[in-house]
Write a structure and sequence with these properties.
InterPro entries: HCF244-like, NAD(P)-bd_dom, NAD(P)-bd_dom_sf. The chain is built from 10 helices and 11 strands. It is an alpha/beta fold. It has a domain of about 170 residues: Rossmann fold (3-Layer(aba) Sandwich), CATH 3.40.50.720. The chain binds NADP nicotinamide-adenine-dinucleotide phosphate.
Length: about 290
Amino acid sequence: MKRVLLAGASGYLGRAMLAELKTRGYWVRVLVRTEQQQQALSQIADDTFLGQATDIDTLSGLMDGIDLVFTSIGITRQKDGLTYESVDYGANLNLLTLAENSKVEKFIYVSVFNADKLPGIKIIQAKEKFVARLKSSWLPYCVIRPSGFFADMKEFLVMAKSGRVYLLGNGQLRFNPISGADLAKVCCDMFQSEQTEVDVGGPEVYSHDQIAELAFKALGEPVKMTHFPLWLVGALVSVMRWLSPVSVYGPVEFFAKAMSVDMQAPCYGEESLESFFVHLANIDNRAS
Ligand SMILES: NC(=O)c1ccc[n+]([C@@H]2O[C@H](COP(=O)([O-])OP(=O)(O)OC[C@H]3O[C@@H](n4cnc5c(N)ncnc54)[C@H](OP(=O)(O)O)[C@@H]3O)[C@@H](O)[C@H]2O)c1
């Protein structure tokens, strides 16, 4: 069975990827950056490697015996004072450089759907800079382009719980987010596929209004929504760009812009967003 290096295993998609790879019988080494993560993941992974993806000098031996690489390393929400350039681009570039100098057969990377329709956004610029470098590599590769993750839909539930959901635009834009487990299945399939780029959405397409309605339904609360015009959101993001550091405006800019275009990607998977919301609402109920 092939030996996989999984980078990003502590994240939402990475955790699902680890479970899927093990279900399919792969031998898996995970790259982690803290001893705590190493301890937690050593229960599931076959091997753990402690190193800083942003510092290539700490990664010696990482690719030894590895056939396939999957990386979902990235900072969706900024932390640690690092930049998109040093993580989304730099850390993944370190992995690619090491892979190119070893016997790796395929490199899979996760960027975003509709990147070409979202120009000028810092996080996407860093990701697509890496994609360009990956495409120029002699290594066989695949770029996964998900529309959005269930994990990020939690924000709808949080707002619904507080009594009102605030939406950008008229609420009619289309979106099909996907669960980590469903996306992990597509990612694993790509190890055997000839496809070099794949757009991936979840099985159900919703308008933003419908997602908000599902969140209220899961909580058993009446629907209350407020829509902000897109021009106002655009103006606010522009002001934030001037007044705040990238660690503050970066995530706001990404989510605001992504929510201002249709994000309907080809449908995959079977897990429903409604069940995800109901599951979270039940956890909340039990906790309170
Ligand atoms: N969320 C979405 O809707 C969406 C949509 C399309 C694409 N994507 C992209 O898909 C990828 C995976 O998303 P996700 O939701 O799984 O993200 P996540 O839960 O935030 O996980 C990100 C992973 O990157 C690692 N990472 C972050 N900074 C690092 C650093 N400086 N050095 C080493 N590792 C670092 C994290 O490790 P630690 O746990 O150690 O921080 C974690 O394992 C991301 O690149 C994201 O941009 C996301």
